[in-house]
Design a protein that fits this description.
The protein is of the alpha/beta class. It folds into four domains: about 1-90, Glutaredoxin (3-Layer(aba) Sandwich), CATH 3.40.30; about 110-320, Rossmann fold (3-Layer(aba) Sandwich), CATH 3.40.50.11540; about 320-410, Ubiquitin-like (UB roll) (Roll); about 415-505, Up-down Bundle (de novo design (two linked rop proteins)), CATH 1.20.1440. It has 23 helices and 15 strands. The protein has helices spanning about 10-15, 15-30, 70-75, 90, 110-115, 120-125, 130-140, 150-160, 180-190, 190-205, 220-235, 265-270, 300-310, 315-320, 350-360, 390-395, 415-430, 435-440, 440-455, 460-475, 475-480, 485-490, 495-505, and strands spanning about 1-5, 35-40, 50-55, 60, 165-170, 210-215, 250-255, 295-300, 320, 325, 330-335, 340-345, 370-375, 380, 405-410. The strands form four sheets. A five-stranded mixed sheet has the order 12-11-15-13-14. It has a four-stranded mixed sheet with strand order 2-1-3-4, covered by helices on one side. Strands 7-6-5-8 form a four-stranded parallel sheet, with helices on both faces. Strand 13 and strand 14 form a beta hairpin. Helix 7 crosses helix 10 (about 190-205) and helix 19 (about 440-455) runs antiparallel to helix 20. It is globular, with a radius of gyration of 23 Å.
């Protein structure tokens, strides 16, 4: 009998370690022949701690499980959810990037290769640099960190740059509210990120890589460091990658907790040991990045998806999706929601289907009032926009952005003026201070929203003008995107602003 219990941070926070310890003690007391395997998370957070038991006929899921349930679980008297793969939340997914997450032991390279790992890298080792870059370009893969920039174009720029040293930098500074996909893949399937970085290095001629990982993720830091050591020992990293005569090595660097370091140039400054402030562009990091050398800066999910592209082929990956949004997107569902977790699906699913059918509406049972997509800088969508398909251009056309694909759900008790104020306050606190529209504009924004809250109707026009200035004049997306949540709250939920004026009068 094999028993699978997640070692993911979310599962541990909900008691997975205590369940695993209770399971080990009960197995020993009963003298059972059973093996406990710690995995990543399946992403069904409302069922964590999730325990999967395989008695030789496939995995059956039980959850949420408490230590008090262990005896009944082993005795076979606890009701389960049936075969894990048949749980609707999981069965409706198209898992490409997250195919192994929750299935394998994250630090077993044997497990990884048994489930298709390294097939993409082995194929890439037989291609030229130009062919590798062309494959990524043909797949239509775009940056999953927020901007949605075509990965192939970025790689091609670095490939064409002339330099004695090039770098691959993975942006793992996942700081947006309601986002956890990067953490889940690093804790649950770290070798796919490593494999993706190696392929990127082979493609552009880089021999060194760095993962810039946020300090708030201690479990991910530990798993990634261990995985790098294992990969290096196995010859996946080093001077002779898989015996093919090509070099690539990497290391993990830990950030210091600044939200703005999720912006690529600020991240590069921090990686170099400097203050994390935004650089002016040009020059682009692809030409003058880390240590002034050509650098590919990609998000965790972008790089972790690269092995899928090479294992399955660019055409296979590009066959999923909608318009220019190719492949799949790991959507992170959080907030006031019944079924929170990670849902990987092809681009194109309407927002309303995700909220009402997949997520099951609100946890409180009250009507959904607003959904924020794309982190603290994302727009608030009302129900009237729930028919919007999940795609970069489609969201942009509705005044929103996908960003890192985090969704935060709010019921009808949410105060949208308060949420708009929070966005401005967040920007004011997290601004690096490099440019005036962000540094000063966000502070003035908080003051202006407070005026509206006190009944000053004329301040609405001031807030609108201020948002336009921040959007057009800020040096990076922190100041430039803060107007998205503010203006969407003002536009779609005017009653939350008008009632303040009426109350004051």
């Amino acid at each position: 009998m094999k028993i699978y219990i997640s070692m993911d941070s979310a599962a541990k926070a909900l008691g997975a370690d205590q369940v695993a310890a209770g399971m080990a003690a009960e197995i020993a007391a009963r003298g059972l022949h059973a093996e406990i395997i710690r995995t990543g998370s399946r992403g069904m957070i409302w069922l964590e701690p999730l325990v999967e038991i395989d008695r030789g006929q496939g995995r059956e899921a039980f959850g949420p499980v408490s230590p008090a349930d262990v005896a009944a679980l082993l005795a076979g008297t606890m009701a389960g959810h049936g075969p894990t793969e048949t749980i609707p939340f999981l069965a409706k997914q198209t898992r490409l990037t997250f195919a192994r997450c929750g299935v394998t032991d994250p630090l077993s390279l044997d497990d990884y290769t048994a489930h298709g790992g390294l097939l993409g890298l082995r194929r890439a080792l037989g291609l030229s640099r130009a062919e590798i870059v062309a494959e990524v370009t043909a797949s239509g893969l775009r940056g999953r960190g927020g901007a949605g920039f075509p990965t192939g174009i970025k790689w091609n720029t670095v490939l064409g740059a002339q330099a004695d040293q090039k770098y691959i930098v993975c942006n793992a500074d996942e700081g947006d509210s309601g986002t956890f996909a990067d953490r889940m893949i690093m804790e649950g399937d770290p070798f796919c990120l490593i494999e993706g970085m190696v392929i990127a290095g082979l493609g552009v001629g880089a021999t060194k890589g760095y993962v810039y990982l946020r300090s708030e993720y201690p479990d991910a830091i530990a798993v990634m460091n261990a995985a790098v050591d294992i990969a290096r020992e196995a010859g996946v990293l080093g001077a002779d990658v898989l015996g093919a005569g090509q070099a690539f090595d990497m290391e993990i660097r830990v950030g210091a907790g600044a939200y703005v370091c999720g912006e690529e140039t600020s991240l590069l400054n921090s990686l170099e040991g400097k203050r994390g402030v935004v650089r002016a562009k040009p020059p682009l990091p692809a030409l003058e990045g880390f240590m002034g050398k050509p650098t590919v800066v990609n998000n965790v999910i972008s790089l972790a998806t690269v092995p899928v592209v090479f294992e399955k082929g660019a055409a296979h990956y590009a066959a999923f999706g909608l318009g220019r949004s190719k492949g799949t997107i790991p959507i992170q569902i959080a907030g006031n929601v019944a079924h929170g977790g990670l849902f990987e699906t092809a681009f194109g699913m309407p927002l309303g289907v995700l909220i009402d059918e997949i997520a099951g509406g609100t946890a409180t049972g009250r009507p959904v009032k607003a959904v924020q997509i794309g982190g603290p800088l994302g727009a608030y969508f009302p129900r009237s926009k729930f028919d919007t398909p999940f795609g970069y251009e489609e969201f942009d056309g509705q005044g929103g952005l996908i960003g890192h694909a985090g969704i935060v759900v709010f019921d009808d008790t949410a105060d949208m003026l308060g949420m708009a104020r929070f966005a401005m306050e967040f920007c004011a606190i997290e601004s690096c201070g490099k440019c005036t529209p962000c540094r000063i504009g966000a502070v003035r924004g908080v003051e202006t929203i407070d005026r509206i809250a006190q009944g000053d109707g004329a301040a609405v026009a001031v807030l609108t003008d201020l948002c336009e200035t921040m959007k057009d004049g800020s040096l990076c997306a922190l100041g430039g995107f803060t107007p998205f949540p503010v203006m969407s709250a003002l536009t779609h939920f005017p009653d939350d602003f008008a009632t303040r004026k009426e109350a004051a009068e």
